[in-house]
Amino acid sequence: MSTKPRILIARRIFPEVVQRLAQHFEVQANDEDIAWTPQELAAQLADKDGALTTGSQRIDAPLLALCPRLKIVANMAVGYNNFDVAAMRAAGVLGSNTPDVLTETTADFGFALLMATARRMAEAEHYLRAGLWQNWRYDMFAGAEVHGSTLAILGMGRIGQAIARRGAHGFGMRVLYHNRSRLAPELEAECRAEYVGKDELLARADHLMLVLPYTQQSHHAIGAAELARMKPTATLINIARGGIVDDAALAQALAERRIAAAGLDVFEGEPAVHPELLQVPNVVLTPHIASATVATRLAMANLAADNLIAFFRDGQALTPVEMT
Ligand code: 8YV
To answer: What angle do CA 288, 21, 315 make, to 5 degrees?
Structure first.
């Protein structure tokens, strides 16, 4: 009988990472990439010592009650709002995430989405594909300036800072930020970012970029009242999490042109998308792909695997999440 710990890989991931894990563990992989219900996930995990999850598997008290052997859940994501940390702590289950390896790639995508939104690339492409392009017009898809404009960042962790550097150093933008805590002066200087209150951030933003974690406190951090504080020419970019923005309020603001445009990679209740967001033209929509380069997704899978290996070998994960 094998004495290796048993792990579940909850979604399909790179075969080479599955093979690496199989050298250390008795692995059950979800090769068919079935989106298990919470009950099915609990049944799969019932006899496992560890799990590799993505952001779409919720780890909470009802599930943990059915998984008495479980000791660690390694998320292949930097965000871990799928973890009920208090329930995991109570059950003696450690969580880990994948910080750092996706910072620059995610910041690149944030910038790509900002530029596509400001410069109306999706709208323009749909127009061209529909065969509507017949002549040049002076105001055809005229959008908002990116270089030299004011970039406002809500949430100034690693990804926020990487976006600030791109904006300040690459595009000559004035960078404002708001965060739970202010950055150290050296870091502010390096990012050329000015700390302001949330209301001032909203009012001065030409482009508002959301890069904060999803928590009870950040639920609907951008709703009707916050959108009303923004300039009618402003754009809003969300690469953080669905639920930080009130999508119904945003769809209405976009339809009424109370802000100019939005770029959204994440949605409340994704993969479902608010039907009105699908109707308004001034929004660029992508299916949660900000970290999706081959190299970065491989680095994320490997770091999640390394967390499991280190935990069962040394009793410590490499990048545990705060369990308080
Ligand atoms: C993941 C993400 O692809 O890391 C995160 O927090 O949102 C993405 O990079 C997604 O959560 C799947 O795990």
So the answer is: 100
Q: How many A from CA of 257 to the centre of ligand 1? A: 30
Q: How far is the CA of 98 from the centre of ligand 1 (A)?
A: 9
Active-site annotation holder among 241, 268, 274, 297? 241
Q: Is 78 in the pocket of ligand 1 (CB under 6 A)?
A: yes
C-beta atoms surrounding 108 within 10 Å: 17
Is residue 270 part of the annotated active site? The answer reads yes
What domains sit in the chain, N to C, each tagged with a CATH number? 6-101+294-314 (3.40.50.720), 103-285 (3.40.50.720)
Query: Beta strands of the chain (E only): which ranges?
Result: 6-9, 26-29, 50-53, 72-75, 94-96, 150-154, 174-178, 193-195, 207-210, 235-238, 261-264, 283-285
Q: Indicate the pLDDT class of residue 324, thresholds 50, 70 and 90.
A: confident
Over residues 235-243, mean pLDDT: 98
How much distance in Å is there from the Cα of 31 to the middle of ligand 1?
A: 19
User: What is the reported pTM?
Assistant: 0.97
Name which residue sits closest to atom 6 of ligand 1, judged by CA.
79
Rounded mean pLDDT of 98-106?
A: 98
